[in-house]
Each structure stands twice: as structure tokens, then as C-alpha cells.
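Handout, page 2. Input:
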Amino acid sequence: MTEPNPRYISLAASRNGKVQKECWAEALKLAKLATTDVQIFLDAVNHFPDSTTRAEGNKRFPGLSGNESRAWNAVRGRYWVFRIRRSAAGEFNGFNKKWTEDTAGRPPIGPDGLWMELEHDIERANDIKRTFDPDNIFEAFHRVHTLRTPQVSFRWLPGVFEPKSPHDPNSWIRKELERKPHLRLCGNPLDYDVWP
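Output:
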């Protein structure tokens, strides 16, 4: 595993790891225009009381969880495009800038050689109304268990596969580039010392 990009880490720490609100608002707005799933989901949950679980929401609005997943995916992909476009100088490496643009919103690759995630402080299953609340969503490396301490500490989830540097020939990103040659236009992971 490579060390996380210090520029990214300091900027993430300044927001306590949360998503950038301006980018999130733009992604949500664009996703509403592109797919009816987002507006249908928002219209449904606006009538729910606070802290409505996914199970309770599905009782009130059958089929809501399928609509929620499609809506979440629509906003998430658009978020990463806006996030990369508006990133500070040095926050993301050149590979990730090209990768996210060329793959229409696939998340950037972290120092563990895997795609980054958007996670919820309060899980969607526990409070479906907060699915799109930017104060409830934070950016995380794929294998990060938590990003919640003032020092922005990273704890890797235990598992069969240990995190690998994007430089490692057995990392997910290197395997992905082997499987999909057209993605090699994003560049060579070996050319970049810091990730994301």
C-alpha cells in the first residue's frame, strides 16, 4: 500500500472527511434532471418522519429500496465527476483525474489500489431520509473502516485480501487495466507516487 496523498488528507480533515457540499448539490441537481428515480425517492421520503428505517420506508412506499439504490448510484457517480473537476491542485493525481472523467464518474483510486467510497455516518438502512444529506456522507478509501477521529486516523478492514499499492501488479486497479485495455489511456499507475 502506498501512503495516502498528504494534500488530500489535509483537505479531507478540514471538512472532517465529509463530501464537498457544493459538488454534492450539483450532483444531486443534475441527477434529478437525468433520472426520475431521484425525484421519486425524495418525494417519498419527504413525507416520512425523521429516523425512518429502510424497512419502515418500504412499508409506506413499496419498492422504495430499489428506487433508493438507483437514485444513490445516479448521484454518487455525478459527485465524483464534479469532485475531481473542482479539486484543489495536487489533491488527486493525474491518473485519477483522467480515470474519473473517462469512466463517467467511477470513483478515484485510493492508496490501497481500490476505488474510493462514499459512506454514511448514519447508515441508509437506519435513517432513509438522510440518504442524500451531505452532513451524513463522507469520502473514504475502500478499505477504511472509519474516518471519524479528529486526527483523521485510518483503520483498514481486516479481510482475506490485504490492501495493495496501486503499484503492486496484483492490485485491483492493475488487474482492471489488464482486463480493460481501453482504460490504459488513463495512464500508468507506476507514474504516480501519491494516491488518490
